[in-house]
Amino acid sequence: MNVTANNHDDVSALLTVTLDKSDYKDQVEKQLINYAKNAQVPGFRKGKVPLSMVRKQYEAGIAFEEINKKVSESLNNYIAENNLRLVGQPVPQPVDDFNHNAEKLSVAFEVGYEPNFSIDLGKYSAPHYKVESSDKEIGQSIENMQKRFAEQVAQDKIADNSYVALKVSQVVEEDAVGEHHHHPKNVTINADKKAAFDLVKKLKTGDAVFVTKEDLQSNEELATELGFSKEEAAHLHHDKVEITVQDFYELKLAEVNQELFDKVYGEGVISSEQELKDRVKKELDEYFQQNADVHFVNKILEQITEKEEVKLPEPFLVKWLVFSNENIQSEEHAQEILNTEKNQLKFQIIEGKLISDNDIKIDYEDVLSQAEQLVRNQLAMYGIHHLPEEEVQKYAVEMLKDQEQVRQISSEVAMAKLKDVILEKATKKETKISHDEFLEELKK
Q1: Domains of the chain, residue spans
Q2: If you write DSSP's letter for every residue of 227-281 in order, what string do you get?
């Protein structure tokens, strides 16, 4: 077996795999003998079918499979030994005259691969924000805790401080044809959701009000507050939507006392309001800093993607798109698709290059640790902050039984490690900033 490369340029080549008949002949013969032993052919006892008959019927198919195996093995070995980072997959060239009995066989593949380049992270710089939480953010966070454990107090009528539970249903017309099953939406609003609140603030429990499909399509704020995405509002099946008041109540916030501390953080962890404020500030500062670190890394990656020259094997990629996607009928169509995906592909190559050049590795412990953190984050959304570690790990292990989850989490781990490398090696312009200013910066 032999593989030769005819380079078109420094990012694409024609790889030709040449096989001698001796590379696969013995394996084909073994399989034919095995077939002869087990074949059941009318007129012959099992194991007594003439080899010549088996050869005539099966040799070509068996040889084709063995040749395919040997070609794939040779090609993969060549790619690995030469450290080629492929873009797309090899595209086989048509073989005009396939003869499994020929003394030599050649199969050629077009391949495209990433260019050989290096990235000096030290020459890139961006603002690295130091975001500190203020009394406003700390107070808001504590108020959210109070709301999470608030008591619902019944009211006689809807007031400015009310929370209103609504059922939102599409109204099926009397002359509608066929079956129509639409699950109602259940949403809870307050005065902050002004468009929806204004519709129902004069109603009582059980009262309803109607809006039209046109109302929802022209008023995105109202549609969102009633639980419809822009896409859903655009494709409503019926002309009217009924909004029914199911309940309304005032939220009596939980008092800031030991009972609240214990509910949020576990018994005896926090013992005073000042300790609570200090703990919340520490958590917020850590969270804000994580966001600031991500912002810095994204800015560096944007600059790298903009400034680094990354040569793509475009002619190959056009061929590969036509070969691998039956919906792409022409090279012109493939070129259009490539033009829209080019920047994303360049970004992926840069990410892969940074991960490779900085020797970033991922093991099971990394993936498990990240899965455990995801579990903690999900539990925290429901106000659960102190589940035992063995319980957290049990949920994480269950999560990792899903291969798609493993792939996604592995990608997150790789990016987290890359983030640390960029934070260490890129040039940071340290800048203090308030959280409100940081939010404005993110909007830019």
Answers
A1: 2-112, 121-130+272-443, 151-252
A2: T--HHHHHT-SSSEEEEEEEEEEEEEPPPSSHHHHHHHH-TTT--SHHHHHHHHH
Each residue of 299-329: pLDDT tens digit? 999 999 999 999 999 999 999 999 999 888 8
Does the pLDDT value for residue 39 go beyond 80?
no
| CATH class of the structural domain 2-112 | alpha beta
Name residue, tokens 């401080």: 161
The model carries a pTM of 0.68
Closest to 334 (Cα-Cα) out of 346, 317, 350 = 317
Task: Render pLDDT for 76-118 as a digit per residue (tens, 0 to 9).
Answer: 999 999 988 899 999 999 887 778 888 888 999 999 999 988 9
Give CA–CA dist 320/90, Å, rounded: 8
- Given CATH 1.10.3120, say whether it is the number of domain 121-130+272-443: yes
CB of 166 closer than 8 Å to CB of 247: no
Strands 91-92 and 104-112: antiparallel
422: left (phi over 0), alpha (psi -120 to 50) or beta: alpha
Distance of CA 303 to the CA centre of its chain: 23
d(CA 147, CA 141): 10
Is the pLDDT score of 55 beyond 90?
A: no
* Alpha-carbon gap, residue 106 to 442, rounded angstroms: 56
Long-range contacts of 140-148 (CB under 8 A, 24+ apart): 141/280, 141/283, 141/284, 142/256, 142/276, 142/277, 142/280, 143/253, 145/254, 145/260, 145/264, 145/383, 146/253, 146/254, 146/255, 146/256, 146/260, 147/251, 147/253, 147/254, 148/254, 148/264, 148/383
Q: What number of other Cβ atoms are within 10 A of residue 348's Cβ? A: 13
CATH number among 3.10.50, 3.90.1690, 3.30.160, 2.60.98, domain 151-252:
3.10.50
Phi, psi of 163 (to 5 degrees): -110, 125
CA 208 to each of CA 1, 166, 185, 242: distance values in angstroms, whole numbers, following the listed order = 79, 9, 14, 7
* 247's tokens: 């309940």
Torsion of CA 213, 215, 221, 225, to 10 degrees: -50
| Cα gap 317→331, rounded to integer Å | 10
